[in-house]
Amino acid sequence: MPPSPVRARTSPWLIVALLCVGQMMIVLDQNIVNVALPAVQRGLGLSSGNLVWVVNAYVIPFGGLLLLAGRLGDLLGRKTVFLTGVVLFSAASVLCGLADSETALIASRFLQGIGGAITSACLLGMVATVFPEGRKRAQAIAAYSFASAGGGAAGPLLGGVLTEWLDWHWIFFINAPIGAVLVLAGVRALPRERGEGLRQGQGQGIDLLGALLVTGGMTLLVYAIVDAERIGWTAARTLLLGPLALLLLIGFVTRQATAATPLLPLRLFRSRSLAAANLVQFLLIAGMFGLLFFGTLYLQRVRGYGALRAGLGFAPIAVVIAAVSLGLSARLLTRFGPRALLLTGLGLVTTAFVLLSFARADGVYAVDFLPAGLVMGLGFGLAAPAMTGLGMAAVAPAEAGITSGLFNTTQQLGGAIGLTVLSTLANARADALAAAGKSRADALIGGYHTAFLTAAGCALAALLVGAVLLKAAPSAHAVEENPVPHGMDAVAA
């Protein structure tokens, strides 16, 4: 039997809260490290070339394993997979905090990336199946979106506090108590959920070859992308690994079209809302990584802020995202529908990036950064729940895990590709300005302007994709009456 939607003896909102804490823990960790990198470098004596692997060692397995982990959630039960991931992630976090060499830290970060992928792959699927449909489901997805966006915005702040008040080791140790609470509470509160099983006959089980192809292809692709920023897009290694990764992924798609038990059923993409939501997310996240990365660099390298002060600079963004995601978005989704909310949010995000492209080297935080940040928080707080709701609207409960993994994979690819492209363009512009005799601050801010304008282009492209592909998307009222859009009955069967 396929797994049924989540049903709980305890409060459904307690389940949502636990899952959101898990999501926030993962997202916080992805962003908390950036602001502490200088302290990590000093503490362990890392070279500039190896410092990037403190980030990449996590990103590569995380991006490569999401689809497989999501499918395992459908087969083994999402509760089992989620709690296993939390245990591994927490244990690896302790190892990261205890690391006394760059080798130990990088190896521990790799294990942490595996645990992070296993934890997060099923999260969205679990949240989306707590409530079948309607306003409560919209509120649950809004809470999940807040956990994702709020965790990203709060990461630099918490990283600054822990680094300056305690030590860089605590950016990793902080995950241990959170993980322990999640496991202890999750064992009791999360409902038991019987998965399909690994071997139950025709039409069920796991596509081992497909799993190997997609995991290998995604891992190589993420590695090639993040490594290209350091060695260049025309380097021999990039030109070798990039096409090889694409060949593996093409092989995976071919396999999914013919396998009796596909890892990622291609029929899912018959849903216009699912396909469009993933494409919109890819473009939006590609730009949003520019805010977190280049916004932090602007405040620290150009304005001279310390880690804590730079983190505090992002706090208003997190507050706005929380207010919109938790207080307004569900009601607005019910009244105006997800398409209208998504397009409005994307328009605001585009505007915010354009505003950031006017930030001055000698500017004032309240003029050059804060207004754009508040508009960004409002826009993302509106767009993220609508985008997530559209992506999960037509998903059958038995496929919520793989769809959640797909959604997270799209997010990771968007972030990796977006940050690499933005960094390449920003560095090229900064180098050109420096060669022309500009000061260091002017050269840096010129590079950041290029990155912000490119991010605005990504957000605008996401808006156009949503406007075109989501023309026939149902409103929230229609979704409440019939949660499976026309033409998707075969998916839910």
UniProtKB/TrEMBL annotation:
GO molecular function list: transmembrane transporter activity
Keyword field: Antibiotic resistance, Cell membrane, Membrane, Transmembrane, Transmembrane helix, Transport
Membrane topology designation: Multi-pass membrane protein
Major localisation: membrane
Transmembrane segments: 12-31, 51-69, 81-98, 110-131, 143-162, 168-187, 208-226, 232-253, 274-299, 305-328, 340-359, 448-470
GO cellular component, one term: plasma membrane
Location(s) in or outside the cell: Cell membrane
PROSITE patterns found in the cross-reference section: MFS
InterPro entries: EmrB-like (IPR004638), MFS (IPR011701), MFS_dom (IPR020846), MFS_trans_sf (IPR036259)
Domain Major facilitator superfamily (MFS) profile: 15-474
Cytoplasm listed as a keyword: no
GO biological process annotation, one example: response to antibiotic
Coiled coil residues, start to end: none
Cited PANTHER family: BLR6921 PROTEIN (PTHR42718:SF46), MAJOR FACILITATOR SUPERFAMILY MULTIDRUG TRANSPORTER MFSC (PTHR42718)
Name of the molecule in the record: EmrB/qacA subfamily drug resistance transporter
